[in-house]
Amino acid sequence: MELSAYRATEFPVTRTWAYLNHAAVSPLPNRVVEAMVRFLEARRMGELGLEDQQPITEATRALAAQLLHATPEEVAFVGSTSDALNFAAQSLPLEPGDNVILCDMEFPANVYPWMNLQRKGVEVRIVPHDRGGLTPERLAEHLDTRTRVVTVSSVEFLSGYRADLPALAQLAHEAGAAFVVDAIQSLGAVPMDVRACGIDILAANGAKWLMAPIGITVLYVRREWIERLQPVYAYYGAVVHPEPYLAYDWTLRADARRFEPSSPNVAGLYGLHAALSLLLEVGVERIYAHLLALTDRLIEGLQALGLEILTPRDREHRAGIVTCRTSDVRRDWARLKEARVLVAQREGYLRISPHFYNIPEEIDRLLEVLAARIPAR
Q1: Of 23, 62, 88, 302, which residue is least crowded by CB atoms under 10 Å?
Q2: Which residues of 205-225 are buried (b: 16+ CB within 10 A; e: fewer)?
Q3: What is the pLDDT, as a whole number, of residue 30?
Q4: At what angle do helices 266-282 and 30-44 cross, to 10 degrees?
């Protein structure tokens, strides 16, 4: 199916907005809303109970594994990306004197869980970014024999820098460190192969590029790490034999479900299942190619306007985010909104983030609004 057909059938938002803010939160496709409504109607009529959540959970787990090129046994579902990253920070075997490395472009969700370990004597090394993110060269300068974790965003929330995950993972593993990835700004927009990228733990909430509900997060744990991690919470569903309830058999599951809350966001799972089905149907390779074409057009237009661009120009280190600075960001954000073009303000920049259903004409509309505020030379 052509991308324009998805635009017409799945995204009524296009009738009112040029929506270029997927790095913040995505509009929900029709099929996602419909799946959640069907579930809620069934709950309202008493047609679904706790015993009925397992099929949708396992079906969604299989789709998430397919998207990640992982196995279903390596996938769990939690509430937020912060939940997943806090799980990683608290579960990894870290001791006083160990250190964690991250860069100074990380969103706080991938900073504070690690800083919280400082009270246990773990050092957190926040290193200066290089061209908007953590490069292998910069990482190599700060690794040592006490580095136990390297954590990075696959795509940085502000600069839009796309990390070289395989190279970073190789350095981390050579140092004996776990490699943890916050993939919230890439999963669903950029192809992801967790094995090829050497990722040990990955987290991505559904609300952005996955186009799923808020409050449902994909957590991946590499098979080899599952039994090395100490569960932060003791969930009754984490054990091999949850029933009979009064047996109290604390034998943990051998897969990632040992880390999964016993009362999941079932409505969110229905929505995530529909969203993952859509993305896999369209094809993430196809989505990524379309985003690169849109961001090429956007960067070329912003350069022609003489604006400062924070995002790398080269495709190798770019995904769906382009960030620029104008002479008056607040004013220009408001003017864009008046013109029904929605982007984000972040740290004194305009952040523009289209998805696969956006079209070149919407990029041109944004550029026209920005051009109207620049005096003729």
Answers
A1: 62
A2: bbbbbbbbbbbbbbbbbbeeb
A3: 98
A4: 150
